[in-house]
Specification:
With 353 residues, the protein is an alpha/beta fold. The protein has twelve helices and 13 strands.
Length: 353
């Protein structure tokens, strides 16, 4: 049961019919592991703590740096130089003394991933590199744990839920490790974006615990903070969701070579009658502006339908803004050896009749 203090603290949850006392008790009994106490981890931890999630683990071996304070709003200048996991624990316990916080002052790796993840009900990935994301995904598959995922880059944020009730996994969305250097380097991020994505991640975790609403399984939520455009991309479970053991996750951050073509160059090819293939990787509902001579082959199916890609002529791939098509090209080049692929700079958004 809840104490008198907890009843008062969680009053706004208790009067919600879909949560109530039963849901609040589920939150109190829940065990959530937050991997990463950085930009995404801070808002996730603050909202889960405030919501009354009874057992929260924090995995992070980094220390607070002054450059973190622009977006990691859990910390203050007095925390600089402290362990993020330990500092976060101390702050959160003061925020809500009714819950348990466990600090793991270590980085997640092949040796500790499964043992850490197995102790909790829901795993939340707030890391900022592909190595950790694939490792956490695979460990969650092996341990049969749902995974809440978020990522941020400059002005774009993404959020999804993987491995929920035998649903799609991170590898179903990204079959191969994208060799994008920007993800591993400090490309910059607007300070409010982690709060937007982190809040949504916390919301998914709460919905899973209380068993309400529609979980973002098989859906990738994408938001651009510059123009507030929102996309929800659907994807399905594939054979890549079957993982029986952890592998090698020491991928480098070197940027793979991707040939680019501008909209102006593409228009010349179209008007000249040159032989080429133009593939639209957007989902059907995104295709308000169809490019001349384009064929639809969505990002989610292109790795399985790679035989539809021609090999004897130049092939130009595009999506909305050119990011997904670049990832697809790198995956296709690495897995199938294509050498005739070109990415349309700026994607469909750059096309003007």
């Amino acid at each position: 049961m809840l104490s008198p203090s907890e009843n008062k603290r969680y009053n706004r949850h208790l009067i919600l019919p879909v949560i109530g006392l039963k849901g609040q008790l589920k939150l109190k009994e829940a065990k959530i592991l937050m991997v990463g106490a950085g930009g995404l981890g801070c808002p996730v931890l603050q909202y889960l703590t405030a919501a009354g999630v009874g057992n929260i683990g924090i995995v992070d071996n980094d220390i607070v740096d002054e450059s973190n304070l622009q977006r990691q709003i859990l910390f203050t200048p007095g925390d600089i130089g402290k362990s993020k996991a330990v500092a976060a624990k101390d702050i959160l316990i003061n925020q809500n003394p009714h819950i348990n916080i466990y600090a793991f002052n270590e980085f997640i790796n092949v040796d500790n991933a499964i043992s850490l993840i197995s102790q909790f009900d829901i795993i939340i990935d707030g890391t900022d590199n592909f190595n950790s994301r694939y490792l956490i995904n695979d460990a969650c598959i092996i341990a049969d744990k749902p995974l809440v995922f978020g990522s941020i880059h400059q002005f774009e944020g993404q959020m999804s839920v993987f491995n929920y009730k035998n649903g799609p996994t991170y590898r179903c969305l990204y079959p191969e490790v994208p060799q994008l250097g920007n993800d591993c380097s400090q490309a910059g991020v607007i300070g409010v974006l982690p709060g937007i994505i982190g809040t949504l991640m916390a919301n998914e975790a709460i919905k899973m615990i209380v068993e309400i609403g529609e979980i973002q399984s098989g859906k990738l939520f994408v938001i651009n903070a510059l123009d507030l455009q929102i996309q929800v991309l659907e994807f399905t479970r594939s054979s890549l969701a079957k993982v029986t053991q952890l592998g090698n996750y020491n991928h480098t951050c070197e940027t793979a070579q991707v040939k680019e073509i501008t909209v102006a160059q593409l228009k010349v090819k179209i008007t000249s009658g040159e032989d080429f293939q133009l593939l639209d990787l957007r989902e059907i509902y995104e295709q308000q502006n169809r490019l001349p001579k384009s064929e639809s082959l969505s990002f989610g199916e292109i790795m399985q339908e790679y035989k539809k890609i021609k090999t004897h002529v130049p092939v130009i791939l595009f999506c909305k803004q050119g990011n997904r098509s670049k990832i697809a090209i790198m995956n296709l080049q690495e897995k199938f050896g294509f050498d005739n692929l070109h990415n349309l700079e700026g994607g469909a958004d750059a096309w003007k009749e």
